[in-house]
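Revision sheet: structure tokens.
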Amino acid sequence: MNISRNEQRALHVLALGGHILHARGDGPKITSATCVSREGMALADFDLAVFTRLRRKRLIESRAGSPYRISKRGLTSVRAQLDNQGA
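Predicted:
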């Protein structure tokens, strides 16, 4: 599966315990999304386009209206990085 660099960065943050906060407009459509690390820092290059690509590939999921987190499929597709070894 082809995963872009921005998607890969977001998956690494999510694999280390981060989550994605989303906001809805007047209807059911999601209008904004922010990727937040476990320490509370926001990922700078994360936008709605990256969010929709991750969701379309089923690499992230939300259960019962909670913030989006990495799915089992996302965990298997994330590439190993040096900072992921301690988690």
